[in-house]
């Protein structure tokens, strides 16, 4: 890591960032961050507070261990529809499936569920990326192609923006939009979560 990293690590921790969050920000392991904290001799009070906060965060993360069970086709459709409710384009504003996020894990999960639940035609997928002008287009295309299991030949012309000041994430792979040109798919997904909403609300309210 560059010499300036310890100071940046200390700054993020002073703002309440967890070790896990900082490790993700610098694209490295949590142990590496801990070693930098120890090596640069943050105050015992500060280090004690950091470790205390980290223990509390881990306890909350582990609090709700739900039993997901086997994900069959019906469950895959249900989970995919809930994710689409959050991040997908809706009819009538859109007549095609369009799931957009910069969260790699969410995009990967949605596609896995969508593929299992609906058996889509792979050649109908299209990918559109938006990223900053100083980023490498070829590397980003390869990155998302590997994540999505969609060939680069099915990627559309990207949207490229210039930074205009302010704060930006250090590790940023652009915003990814997965599109599937099938009018019926967006309606099927919307139908599932709308029926779920009605049933859940009637039972809970």
Give the SSE map.
Blueprint: H1 5-14, H2 19-25, H3 30-39, H4 44-61, H5 73-87, E1 97-101, H6 104-118, E2 125-132, H7 137-148, E3 159-161, E4 175-180, H8 183-204
Parallel strand pairs: 2-3
Antiparallel strand pairs: 1-4, 2-4
Helix pairs in contact: 2-3, 5-6, 5-8
What's the short version?
The chain is α+β, with helices and mostly antiparallel strands and about 200 residues long. About 55% of the residues lie in helices and about 10% in strands. The relative contact order is 0.13.
How would you describe this structure to a colleague?
The protein is α+β, with helices and mostly antiparallel strands. It is 53% helix and 11% strand. It is built from eight helices and four strands; from the N terminus they run H-H-H-H-H-E-H-E-H-E-E-H. The protein has a four-stranded mixed sheet. Strand 2, helix 7 and strand 3 form a beta-alpha-beta unit. The radius of gyration is 21 Å and the shape is globular. The relative contact order is 0.13. The model has no long low-confidence stretch (mean pLDDT 87).
Tag the structure with descriptive keywords.
205 residues, alpha+beta, 8 helices, 53% helix
Find the structural class using helix and strand composition. alpha+beta
Largest sheet: 4 strands, mixed
What form results from the Cα inertia axes? globular
Radius of gyration: 21 Å
């Amino acid at each position: 890591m560059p010499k300036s990293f310890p100071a940046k690590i200390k700054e993020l921790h002073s703002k309440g960032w967890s070790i896990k969050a900082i490790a993700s920000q610098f694209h490295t392991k949590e142990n590496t961050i801990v070693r930098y904290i120890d090596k640069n001799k943050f105050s015992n009070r500060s280090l004690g507070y950091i470790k205390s906060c980290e223990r509390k965060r881990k306890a909350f993360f582990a609090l709700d261990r739900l039993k997901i069970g086997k994900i069959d086709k019906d469950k895959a459709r249900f989970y995919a529809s809930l994710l689409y409710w959050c991040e997908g384009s809706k009819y009538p504003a859109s007549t095609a499936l369009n799931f957009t996020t910069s969260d790699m894990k969410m995009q990967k999960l949605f596609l896995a569920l969508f593929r299992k639940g609906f058996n889509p035609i792979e050649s109908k997928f299209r990918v559109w990326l938006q990223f900053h002008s100083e980023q490498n287009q070829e590397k980003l295309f390869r990155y998302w192609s590997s994540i999505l299991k969609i060939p680069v030949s099915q990627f559309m012309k990207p949207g490229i923006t210039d930074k205009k000041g302010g704060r930006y994430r250090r590790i940023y792979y652009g915003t990814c939009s997965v599109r599937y040109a099938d009018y019926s798919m967006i309606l099927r997904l919307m139908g599932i979560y709308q029926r779920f909403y009605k049933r859940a609300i009637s039972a809970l309210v």
